[in-house]
Amino acid sequence: MSLPRNVVLLLTHSADYFTVERVAQALSRRGAQPFRLDTDRFPMEVRLSARLGSAGLCHRVEYGERIVGTDEVQAIWMRRIWQPQLSTNLAPQFHDACVRESLASLRGFLDGLSEVRWVDDLQRISLAENKLRQLRVARNAGLSIPRTLVTNDPQQARQFFSEVEGRMVAKLLTPLSVSMEGSSLFVYTSAVQEQDLVDAEALRYSPMVFQEQIPKLRELRVVFVAGKLFVGALDASRYSAVDWRRTTPEECPWEADELPSSVARCLEEFMAQLGLVFGAIDLIHTSEGEHMFLEVNPTGEWGMLERDLGYPISEAIADALLA
To answer: Residue by residue, what is the 3-state secondary structure of the chain?
Structure first.
């Protein structure tokens, strides 16, 4: 007798909290069986097995006291895939190889679940994380975007600084955050001063994103889930930081907001072109009333909006997973 296909795999890491718990609770209320898989615990505490042969495929995962076969999995929420936490007893010369093999094994295991419902699947997330592609698709969808330069050429960075009359910020091409509280690994968007570019030869080691700094009335975090929009706003007059993630909830609390229907339609078209069910989108609402697109994080943070504003985002994610 076959087992019921009612398990929803929650891919995350051991330091994650709140959001993964809320989604698990929402799934349980709908009769599904959430199975949290902390990817950083593989291979030390998580055991994966994948059998392949002429009779077909047989995959299973064992974590804690639970064992789940892939034929039981109904859907997967791609929250995070994190680097393995390996034993300190492992000889240093083997560390990188073990990390590489562990991640390859995990991704190979997940490939065996390519036919189930994903929010969102790894390939679409990987494509959508390309910030240059994001900006191109956003512009094609009718969204306003800031002037942007990605370069490892110091001279080009200095020229762009002049073009935007010294109002320039720098940020990375890839996200490094761990959870909704950020971490010591997080690299914030920062204002660039002229003296920063006097000796910018370090760019040759790592390209950066440079954008014109947009005067802001409010900063928006828009959470998109299967066509639903949940909009949180921060009053930019209450803080001086370039990046709102440097503020605290006490300094600048989240407020509920709405988007003009024209902007909402553009965001829906943008997400459709990326093929994403979920995305955490950052916008700036300017003093002129324009909404400027900055970026989308396909696995971005939203817990602060559910926590502070009561938005049912976890419920929407559960519905999308079980659709």
So the answer is: CCCCCCEEEEEECCCCCCHHHHHHHHHHHCCCEEEEEEHHHCCCCEEEEEEEECCEEEEEEEECCEEEEHHHEEEEEECCCCCCCCCCCCCHHHHHHHHHHHHHHHHHHHHCCCCCEEECCHHHHHHHCCHHHHHHHHHHCCCECCCEEEECCHHHHHHHHHHCCCCEEEECCCCCCCCCCCCCCCCCCEECCHHHHCCCHHHHCCCEEEEECCCCCEEEEEEEECCEEEEEEEEHHHCCCCCHHHCCCCCCCCEECCCCHHHHHHHHHHHHHHCCCEEEEEEEECCCCCEEEEEEECCCCCHHHHHHHCCCHHHHHHHHHCC
